[in-house]
Batch of 4 targets.
Target 1
Amino acid sequence: MLRTHTRRLHVSARLLRGQNLTEKIVQQHAVDLPHGKTVHTGDYVSIRPAHCMSHDNSWPVALKFMGLGATKVHNPRQIVNALDHDIQNKSEKNLTKYRNIENFAKKHGIDFYPAGRGIGHQIMVEEGYAFPLNLTVASDSHSNTYGGIGALGTPVVRTDAAAIWATGQTWWQIPPVARVELKGKLPENIAGKDIIVALCGLFNKDEVLNHAIEFTGEAIESLPVDYRLTIANMTTEWGALSGLFPVDKTLLDFYKQRLNVVGPNHPRINADTIKQLEQRASTEAADSDARYAKTLTIDLSTLTHYVSGPNSVKVSNTVNDLARDNVKINKAYLVSCTNARLSDLRAAANVVCPTGDITKLNKVNPDVEFYIAAASSEIEKNAKDAGIWQQLLAAGCRPLPSGCGPCIGLGAGLLEAGEVGISATNRNFKGRMGSKDALAYLGSPAVVAASAILGRIGAPEEVFGQKIPFSAGGVKTTCEDAAATSEAPAPAAAKSASAGAVEILEGFPEEISGELVLCDADNVNTDGIYPGKYTYQDDVPKETMAQVCMENYDSEFGQKAHAGDIVISGFNFGTGSSREQAATSLLAKGINLVVAGSFSNTFSRNSINNALLTLEIPTLIEKLRVRYADAPKELTKRTGWFLKWDVPNAKVIVTEGSLDGPVILEQQVSELGKNLQEIIVKGGLEGWVKSKL
């Protein structure tokens, strides 16, 4: 596995200081550590996760696995395959892929869950693969979900998954850890979705970008596990790599109740594992002297119903405000791994059928299509047994099978051009749930149900003829950065080159240059870079990938950008899903270097693994924004500025007009070490692993 050594300062202090919960869990799953080594933020480690899940992308992972020359899965008990994304697609091509995944799983003894059983993340929780205090990954960006039950869940990309299948391990750098303190008592009828939507909108300046999050505070004990799963799930949209809740009495009670469902002989959730968990919970909590990069607080007692959008999770408003704006909707959705558990379906049913009498319903507005799908077949059965499912159908909801469906822009009920939708899913990126010319909002199950009844975005209280909850003073929050110390690792973009030149491997260019093409936006997401509707088509030719690259961001990108250009964008570039095509489509377009103010960590990982080079230069994007502040707005703009990256000297020079023109900027950048050069020369991590095998 990739091994990179970080500089260590004040080693004795690092060894003596305590660990946060994230570091403790990584410590338990790290392999080949030096004797006595205590891991902390900034360390690169080889990790052996307890489990690794893949879904419809299992076949592409299998092809990578076989392409590496591997013939045997290292540990079949570590791997889970679950079909959940494109399950409405009954074409022979898709069914063949599904059969290939099932046959591969059967051949190698891998646990397999067919289409209709449920969404992979929900299965991982229900079946105990993701379990408190373990490290579980998935080749999907919403692996953060597992933090809701006290597991460290984080996404890996397809190439990492193939490496785990072959070797049992992959690499990870322990990120900075932010503590999010939840204070106060959550008002009645305000849900976990309201909490995370508010957090995404109120802390929308990349405060937690590429951080691990640990939730603490007095309010947690009263938060149901379903709320925790929703919050952890959407820490992905907030920009974090994980969102970890503690193991407490509420969680232990959840598992004791779960015993009644799974029975006494379940291999992962049983009396013994729960007893062991109770014993571990007290000792495997964060140490009192653990270090955190920052602390954010929110007073839950000041919350009301929150909705994000349109087309951004970084914009949130109270339902009170949106109700006054009379935002009419065409479609509503209660689906996905975020909010389709039993309590979510019950919250919606309580709006359409508040008395429990199915003859006295608040019907879905005739101008609205309201789609529902349980997160798993178990949840759908429980909803039917409780009469919840029947109430929703009687009110006019349209059922879909247990799977991702419209959340990823697949199957029935997608948003069409000019339409407006509100959803209890996790993402409302432009074009993700259908047409790029539609508008999408996110809200809690109760708000989505109320909006479907009202025909506009509104609160359940309006349906009941009550006053919408309103916080006159606004939501109370704080954000404090930890004091900088010499022990803290420097951000990659801020590291200066060493006195000597960087050694360049044979086959790696000493200079990379091209004209800068400006995509002037922050939070350019993977749906914008490579549309979701192509993601699970595994045989899209390179030429087509090049044509559709960035089409959801800007339909004119294909005409304005050319092979050999260097794309430059704003902050948090590549946020969103873990699809590798976000990197490979840019490569197909002939873009070999992307510069940004900052990158999503998952996109950076995909870039390294697929041989796409990236540079973080926040100063440069700021200069370009000043330069074009008064120019007509263009999503994609050829700048006439040229960048030259002197790799041996770790220096970037930006000039105007040509590579020999007047110098605009000269700046040191992070060194590109031999280990990363080797991956690029080999064409990516897949080629690197193959060469080692």
Target 2
Amino acid sequence: MDASMNDADVAWLRSRDPFASMNPKSFPRTIPLEGILHNDCRLIRCEAGEVLVREGDYGNSAFLILAGSVSVMVDSLSQQELGRTPAEKLSWPEALRRFMFRSNVAESRDPHQVVPCPTNSAGTIRQLDDRQAIFLQDFDLVMREHEHVSLGPGELFGEVAAMYRSPRTGTVIAENEATLLEIRWQGLRMFRRDKAFAEKLESHYREQWLAIHLREIPLLRYLPEDKLQRVADRTQLGSYGRMEWDTDYKRQRKLPLAEQIKSEPLVAEEGHLPTDLVIVRSGFGRLSQSYGASHRTAAYLGKGHVFGIEELAYNALRTPQMPPRMLQHSLRAIGFLDTLSIPAEVFAEEVLPHIRRSELPASVAKWVTQAEKRGTDRRNQTRSPKSKRDGGRDLPIATGTQYQQTELIEFIVQNRLNNGREAMVIDLHRCTRCDDCVKACASVNDGNPRFARQGLIHDRLQFVQACMHCEDPVCMIGCPTGSIARDVDTGVVEIHEPICIGCGTCANACPYQNIQMANIRDRDGKPYHDQATGKPITKATKCDLCSSQPSGPACASACPHDALVRIDLTESKPLTQWLERRS
């Protein structure tokens, strides 16, 4: 992680807590404690006003304060305060004016789009040691106007986002000159081999975050506080697969389906008695059913979705004469899957009585109604409801158990298109190849379209190679200045060009190759050059869903045959509904 980390640095770290109290025997010989400190950590020197972590960003590292102090902002800072310039929403007359007088120069920019402008941005970029860092210009004013909490030596922050691949929940700024140890998530997981460190991490998560994450689940939103706390106390945390799914996906997508499914970590197996309600905290899971010697994909689950509710509810409401119901599907991790598991008995006693009918699958709601009608006569009930092999699932995503949809769902999962929140899909039965979509994209980007009409094809559908504004945006991990970020309100992943340093980290990280690096020119066609190095300035470019345009995505608006759509593939229901309307 840091080539300059030497044996003296490691020895110094070993003399300080929490590493001084760690038992070296807890770590394998092949991965000793000193090796983790040397390879998965780096020392960072910070100065007052440096933005260390930005709210909403994705990161793969936690930070341990060794000296000095930092402030965690309780109030959210504005985009301008973080050095980001929000997309300007154009009026129709202004959009028309820019269209009529657009530049003929490829990738041309005005000066304020190339470097931060003090009049509209509080952030400045400085070289600090061997890294680029962003600072608040009005640091003292920001600290006076916003509520914040100070953290000092020995305290850890950012570990929840790093361990569970979730957006940062707050902005952290250095209060003074401070020394931090950055620990990437691989190192955090290895440090958990030390029992005391693991217990401290889990205790912190359970005290600060678990109840909040449980409350975000629709099924649990109406639980009384005392019930929620009892559920939290019994909930188990689980992680499956590799967080670096993006480095494996190109290899795995070439595997035959049976091998691909077999290689995915198994969370719960079809035909077994359900023991937990599994909640997807992050990542994706594949639902599959046995089909001959292999499996067929029934659906995929994303953040907030649950597995096993139908079987658990049936078993909780059945009469003694009814046999228990086994799991109708298997659940496997697609790349990476992070889960919360509520034991079956806790679900039956603490959760099921407080779930509203509207939050339940239709079949489960029916059983609840039947159980209430039976009342004291439940013992006389000897007939179980008819059970379909497909489970009759009424999940928050389309079940996909109709076999005519199976191949499409398997194609989406195989190519990890289920990560896309705004995927571009073209119906080739309607598309006339006029390229009006590409021309429209070019017209709002000074003649520089952000996609080409090419991409993966399945049957009548083409999944165009354009930014999908992913559910798990690995492109956002590692950006040194935070120039690539997700808009909190719209979900659009945008590049804030004034603070983009052209390092290419995001373009290299995108597994779909939907981010391009471009040389930037002025309106006369002359390339901009970096004053320090004299090299041409490059910026990351990609689709931003025409966030500044009053008409929305120009590609979809311009299609004369209604063949193109921007659609959420993190759930299968929107795509199947769109196809049903066209059949």
Target 3
Amino acid sequence: MADSYRGGGSFIVGETEPRRIATPEDCAEERHRLAAAAQAFAEREGPLEGAETGTPEDEGTIRLVRRAGEVGLLGAAVPVANGGLGLTGVGLALLAEALAPVWPFVRSPVEQAEAGMLPLALFGTPEQKLRWLPALTSGERIAAYGAAESDIGSEALASGTSAALAADGKHFVLNGCKRGVANAGGADLFVVFAKVDGTQLSAFVVERGTPGLTIGLTESERGIAAAPVGSLFFEDARIPAENLLGEVGQGRRIAYGALNVGRFKLSAGCVGGMKEAVALAAAYANRSRQFGKPLSAFPLIAAKLADMNVRTFVAESVVYRTAGLIDEAASAPGSADRDTPKDSDASDAPDAPEDSDAPEDSDVPDAPDASDRGCRAAEAFAEYALECSIGKILASEALEAVAAETVQIHAAGGVGIRDGKVERICGHSRAARFLEGANEINRLFIPAALLRRAIKSDLPLIEKAQALQQELLDSPPLPLSSASPEAPLAKPGAILSALKKTFLMVGGLAVQKHGLRLEREQTIVAALADAMIDIYALESALLRSGKQALRTAGASAAAHQADMTALFAEEAAERAGTRSRTILASLERGDELLLRLSALKRLLRFVPGDATALRKRIAARVVAASPNGPE
């Protein structure tokens, strides 16, 4: 029977039944219609291909934001009561994925306008929401988000912008500068972060035209020019006290609360980009001929198409599983009254070096009203912040790999990448790895967040690791495992179980050796994060495939998903072995190392599957489903 652990990181110690997860195949028809309508609008308005090479001041970008607001596509995460669509998990994923091929999804003007609304939607007072959100969601006014500075990047916690309460008690005086603010040239208000009295990070809404605010010239970002960026300069800018978001000192909560949503939406956008890239590559491989036959007929090209499809399938499975968890948490009765993660201190969190740029747990303030949809959504995203980071890393890096292979397939046909869609995907794929928190920062966050939950007794991580140590001492060697035609998901399931045990063994040893100072060992922490990513990804694909197999119709889809899951499992097992040996060699020496390596070998004792045959079957289906494919 599956364990009933819930909440962020529970996949490491628990099990889930296929029926309990959300998959793209489950999406309600009306949500598909919403995504189709959004895509049709974006295609009608123009995919902003011209803005890629046009001037940053192109008014078309601002016009697009206003038109999106007019038809109700702004403020997807804003509560309906405030003029938004009120979407949380699956709805946000569908919308972000649908818009990815037609809007430059990692830095589009529409996406950045929504980023400026999020802090207000999640943390604003009723008065602030009523004052600003209706005009923002309608496109009448445009918001922007300012956290980055020259010397700190996007690390809001290290903000050098200062704020001080004026003598009249009715204003805060801001001094400093924000860089790289998307939509700066056309935005009407900005959410910015500054430190009150030099220590208390706080969030403020600053309206255009505020005395002391100067907006610098807009400029293009390399490869992602569709949303031009600018700078904000504050020189004794007087901000009304009622423009403070939350309370003084709650800036961290607000920054990471909005960041969780941004990471999730970015991962969904990456899935949309991957689907577009796979479709473009397969169609081109089918119609382009070399040596008398289509490119798709060559095994090396077919293998690329198979790997691209597997990456897309796995990332999509992760995004929609996480979306379902977020929806479930946001809709749970009394969710706004649940205990939420609080600021970590030395008593309950591993120490980090003074110059560490690893983020703390995402956090939200106590909800004042259980009926507040914004508060419930903020809690839900905070609860699954770990999974949002996993999705962001997995999808952005998969997109970059898929984009590179799309270019390679086009080049293999004798042409370069001077194709608007291919070129756009290639440029934006690189940006996805550093927006919404660089992937390196997200990797440091994932194991740290899991360890904090274990220390707080939210997850029985330590108990599971101790039980595994005894199991490894008492149990006989694990039997060899190979694929079975009658049970195609049995071996992936066995590999998943082995990956979880391997993580507990290696991660438990790392904690035992380094204690609460483990966060200083960033290479080990990053490797443990990669282990968690593989576990969550494989489990998500496995559960989705299992759920598809339960359906009375769609046997061919079930077989296709099972093959993709099996191929990913084979590769994940290989990565786990290499990664774990490297970590163990850094933790042990001599006979102790040999003992640990022996246990690792027992855990990962599998007969290799025929990855070549899996790729051939996957590629054949991809090619057949693409335009100009074989009859």
Target 4
Amino acid sequence: MASTFQDTTTHLEEVTVRAYFTEQPLLRLTASAGVVSPTALGNQSGTTLLPAINTVPGVRMEERSPGSYRLSLRGSLLRSPFGVRNVKVYLDEIPLTDAGGNTYLNVLDAGSIEGIEVLKGPDGSLFGANSGGVVLIRPQGMGDETDPKASLRLNGGSFGLFHEQLSATLNPTAGYRFGFSQAYQRADGYRQNSAMKRAAFQTVQRWNYNPRGELRLIALYSDLRYLTPGGLTEAQYAEDPKLARPATPATPGALEQQAGIVNKTLIGGLVHDIHIGSRLRHVAAVFGSHTDFSNPFITNYELRNEANMGFRTYLDYRGGGSGVFSWHANVGMEGQFGKNDFANYENHGGVRGDAMAIDALRSSQHFYFVRFSADVYNRLLLETSLSLNYYGYRFRPLFPDSEPHYTRRSFDAEWMPRAALSYMLAPQWVWRASVSRGYSPPTLEEVRASDQVINTALEAETGWNYETGFRWQPGNRRIAVDGSVFYYRMEDAIIRQVLETDAEFFGNAGGVNQRGIELSASAWAIEPDQTGWLRGLQLGTNLTLSKFRFGNYRVGDDDFTGNKLTGVPGTTLVSSLLARFPGGIEAYAMHNYTSAIPLNDANTVFAGAYHLLQTKLTWNKPLGSRFIFQVFAGGDNLLNQRYSLGNDINAFGGRFFNAAAPRNFYAGMALRI
């Protein structure tokens, strides 16, 4: 699934993606997709993926506090209060999404990633269960460059921010290449009890043992620690947004309980990629992960021990000839198995107390997939695909009551079909359409949520997605436009609720109707040149319009039918400007407008709309023929907006708001070879 990443805002037709195993121009891709290129990542501070990912229409990444991320593709964050769910994420051929359906995206360092592909809408054709979409991450070291390169980057800023990142890609021999990345990041945070630290190590080792075969090792270790300040009421948020959640007569506060997360994760895998003849390719991967997770919280002290292992294998066959008729076929399977031990103890000011509840859970999922695509006269691209998905878990309570045997909960096997086409109306116009089925079973963290009750009644989300769109690139390639319209009808949507004890649980809503429009456009107002005082001017804008409504949804005597979907802004508009000047100087600015966001299912509380403005100024100075010295500085939230970038939805007691940092700045330098 590795991809060739280029600047998507420069020449759309030159951008190639390999989301479906075959390299093809983004212009002709049948799916709605967004590419976060190295250029887009380089325009940011380098300490977080959030601003770059949020430039993709239909995608929303949130940060409740430093280190605490949430990600949503075309949907709400109802299922993802503290992480990433309902989205399948891969690091090359290795799933970051575990057997239980959870993804620790925050273990990654932003500087260790070369690019990201986002496939929006349910796509189980090659990737298994999901109803939101798929994220494909390209780690450093997966490029085809033969020249060695290395960089050292140092960055610091407001609220105690410090980031150091060292990376290298070397080619010791003609058949062996490796990449290595090491990073350390810390921040004090704007709010009380919001500090974070992360040490991350990543490597990609590649052995080309013959011209047609490659064996590669991908490994990542991350030690992440961050504090969680907790949500504030509207009155507390207005009076002093820096506060951590204060104590009440019934519960202690976040500072008193030293609320936070410690996540130590090791992920690794071997991938064997071989071409058998000129038309057939086989890929096989084995992988595993281990996570030690601890979470002193307001009401308890949670420990989780998680281990996962799995495999992925597929055949890729090319047939026909170029120019008239060619076809592509894939068949394969993927399986994962997880061992999760949940334990909750009393929390005495950040010190673990007596046991409250201990459970052992085991999860397994596997799926089979087939895919066929045909290209007729390099004009009409037809695709059909199908996956058959199996999921189940079993559990055994250990404390306070112990059961000798596991209880099994198996879900029915689910088909996920997809049919799509793209047609080149003219050399610069491509129209596309698709229909696909989504399926997403509950994660183990939803089955056994913080209420410490194993919810065997929780059903999987399902639904059908209908979509059409276009891409336009004039012959001069100075302008690129990409638009989509979709309708996703979801059944049994999984919704987060909170008890009076502050513990969360999840239930199924009747249904959700998701209608949306996504549009991205970019243009070189002044094409890159080597003369003049302004040597390039690029403008871009991305618009997301979401009309997401609950269907038949009742909780007790409350009827939420027809209400706006919790956590989803109706309008998001992201605009950017990149200017290039003589002497290796670049200036970048980005504006993000986000409309009001409903914070509870009743739609009685909303987070206000906000405007974010960020800028970055970069100077690149060559030092001899091999070295480049870079100095950069930037600012975020320059309009000094008071806003909450990661709200607590359906929060008990009105504690919805997690204040983001006001106006802040950063600066740094890098040495590249």
